[in-house]
Amino acid sequence: MSTASAKNPSGRISLCQCLLFLLPTLSKPASKLPVTKPNTLGDCPFCQRVLLTLEEKHLNYDLKLVDLANKPEWFLKINPEGKVPVIKLDEKWTADSDVITQSLEEKYPTPPLGTPLEKASVGSKIFLTFIGFLKSKDPNDGTEQALLNELRSLNDYLKENGPFINGKDISAVDLSLGPKLYHVEIALGHFRKWSVPDSLPYVKSYTEAIFSRDSFTKTRALPEDVIAGWRPKVEG
């Protein structure tokens, strides 16, 4: 079958996140377990990327949450590396958010979420520069400026090409970048009392557009879980 729908339970996918996502009968995913509140989504941005793809494609799925600090035997049996997200499609478990989202796009092409190759790398350096700034102990080491440079590049791009990276419609690259920008907002706001400056209005409008989507509000981690997830890396 080519689609998964509420009217056809046999088309469900299974997914595993840092807790496990189990997608509808079509597939099962696994996802990360949260730190602060049981039975809610964990703070993994890569897991949220997969969930966003499922939601934007209106696919039914079963979600299984997994405690990555105490990985159950059944999880390691299907995924020896013990990483999430993991998804079951066509009776086969697949890991890695890049591979998973591409597989979903090929199997369920409607609505289309593909991003042209020349646009797929827009904003790709933001997450690494964010981590560098977040973990920095030296306010003069240039890590804040490195992040600002990447955000400014995104702002300039969106000014000419927005509101989303591929134009008027959301696409796969937005579903990858959005969860990372959520971590930027929550983690830097908490640990550095820092926020995206008003001089980058297109970035601010972009994040607001993504964060306000039903798919995002349904799949985002609690702010306290994002903070708890980054605390060991910042204070450790």
From TrEMBL:
Q: For this protein, what reaction is catalysed?
A: L-dehydroascorbate + 2 glutathione = glutathione disulfide + L-ascorbate; RX + glutathione = an S-substituted glutathione + a halide anion + H(+)
Q: Which GO terms describe its biological process?
A: acquisition of seed longevity; ascorbate glutathione cycle
Keywords (alphabetical) are: Detoxification, Glutathionylation, Oxidoreductase, Signal, Transferase
InterPro entries from the UniProt entry: DHAR1/2/3/4, Glutathione-S-Trfase_C_sf, Glutathione_S-Trfase, Glutathione_S-Trfase_N, Thioredoxin-like_sf
Q: Name one Pfam family in it.
A: GST_N_3
Q: Which GO terms describe its molecular function?
A: glutathione dehydrogenase (ascorbate) activity; glutathione transferase activity
Signal peptide range equals 1-27
GST N-terminal domain residues are 34-112
The record ties this protein, via PANTHER family, to:
GLUTATHIONE S-TRANSFERASE DHAR2-RELATED, GLUTATHIONE S-TRANSFERASE DHAR3, CHLOROPLASTIC
Give the record's family classification.
Answer: Belongs to the GST superfamily. DHAR family.
What protein does this entry describe?
A: Glutathione S-transferase
Q: What is the lineage of its organism?
A: Eukaryota, Viridiplantae, Streptophyta, Embryophyta, Tracheophyta
